[in-house]
Amino acid sequence: MLAAGTVEPMIEVNDLTKRYGRTTAVDGLCFTVRPGRVTGFLGPNGAGKTTTLRMLLGLVTPTSGSATVDGHRFRDHPRGLRPAGALLDAGDVHGGRTGRAHLRALALGNGLPRERVARVLDEVGLTAAADRRIGGYSLGMRQRLGIAAALLGDPPVLILDEPLNGLDPEGVLWVRELLRRLAGEGRTVFVSSHLMSEMEHTADDLVVVGRGRLIAAESLASFAARGTARSVAVRTPEPERLAALLRAEGAAVTADGPQALDVTGAEALLVGRLAAAHGVVLEELTTRRSSLEQAFLELTADSTDYAAGAAR
Ligand SMILES: Nc1ncnc2c1ncn2[C@@H]1O[C@H](COP(=O)(O)OP(=O)(O)OP(=O)(O)O)[C@@H](O)[C@H]1O
């Protein structure tokens, strides 16, 4: 739990822009990230997420605009690991060291008490492997070590770049629970991903970017409501007759199995009334809400740099 009286930590990004030659990696981004919530930072590959996180952490200088943690530019904070903990690249560690030695060196370099090392090792479930060389760690263990490093300074703000990347289902569940717990303790948890499926059971709020620009900054629930591709699922013993009637009303109809139709451009109410008026039996009539994934794909469709599933 954070000490009483602590100023509420918060991330603020204001008109943030980064250009690399002709490439605008980040283009006038504005958003805030609130404490006590998990905020997902989502966008397709190349959307500018890592560049934004690096600017937040003072590792990349913005071309213009500002990125602050708790009202300060990160590089102006007195002690690196105390105001914010970060996981940027879990592979970027010395493979010859043990996990414990890696964390001890970080604690020493940042003026943190040595006891924190055992504490965070325990927190991420790495105690048993702490005295093995990092070179022999699996990707999941490296992610855990990276998260342990981020937690070392007991920071009120956590900034994690793709922490679920490469984890097995058990690892994903573990990180998800950890993030929820850290947010429950009142911390600001900002976590990037290029997959909506990773965020939909993890995040409370979303910041969605595409080609360096802001697409949405809102709660997960309001983002889900943006999906436009609402359709109606219908099951009937007379699919062809009903399809013809619906098409005559201007709806788009596709077969979704031998006796099932997928209808867009007509609400369930209209489908039901039309069927009743013409004596067509309906065995199912369901409005399918657009999933978060659909909303994400629709809203970022114009901003994808590479084909889906591009290797990372
Ligand atoms: N140091 C750099 N020099 C030149 N271009 C860069 C540099 N860093 C990033 N870029 C470019 O900026 C854009 C955004 O990259 P960034 O890595 O921030 O995106 P991302 O959303 O984190 O994507 P990914 O999930 O693939 O890492 C890309 O077009 C990338 O090629």
Automatic annotation (TrEMBL):
<dbReference type="InterPro" id="IPR027417">
    <property type="entry name" value="P-loop_NTPase"/>
</dbReference>
<feature type="domain" description="ABC transporter">
    <location>
        <begin position="11"/>
        <end position="236"/>
    </location>
</feature>
<keyword id="KW-0813">Transport</keyword>
<dbReference type="InterPro" id="IPR003439">
    <property type="entry name" value="ABC_transporter-like_ATP-bd"/>
</dbReference>
<keyword id="KW-0547">Nucleotide-binding</keyword>
<dbReference type="Pfam" id="PF00005">
    <property type="entry name" value="ABC_tran"/>
</dbReference>
<dbReference type="GO" id="GO:0005524">
    <property type="term" value="F:ATP binding"/>
</dbReference>
<dbReference type="InterPro" id="IPR017871">
    <property type="entry name" value="ABC_transporter-like_CS"/>
</dbReference>
<keyword id="KW-0067">ATP-binding</keyword>
<protein>
    <submittedName>
        <fullName>ABC-2 type transport system ATP-binding protein</fullName>
    </submittedName>
</protein>
<comment type="similarity">
    <text>Belongs to the ABC transporter superfamily.</text>
</comment>
<dbReference type="InterPro" id="IPR003593">
    <property type="entry name" value="AAA+_ATPase"/>
</dbReference>
<dbReference type="GO" id="GO:0016887">
    <property type="term" value="F:ATP hydrolysis activity"/>
</dbReference>
